[in-house]
Amino acid sequence: MNKKRIVLMAVILSVVLIAGTVYVLSAPSASQKGILDLETNYGDSGVITSVYFDYSKDIILVNFSEPMHTTTFGMGLNFAKTWTKTWSANNTLLTISDIDLTADELPTLIIYLMQTEADKKDISEPNIFVGRGEETINTAFVSITGPASVVSGPGTTTATYTISAEYMPAVSGIELEFEVDGSYLSSKDYTALSGFSFLGEGNFDTPIYWKYSGDTWTGKVTLIDLDYTGISGPTDLLKMDFNVSEGKLGDTVVKLNYVKVSHGEGDPIVVRILDGEVVTTFEQYYLPWDVNKDGDIDLNDITFALQYLLAAEGDANWEQARAADVNDDKVVDSRDLSLILANYTVPYYQ
Question: What domains can you pick out in the chain, each with its CATH number?
Answer without folding.
Answer: 3-130 (2.60.40.1220), 141-284 (2.60.40.680), 286-350 (1.10.1330.10)
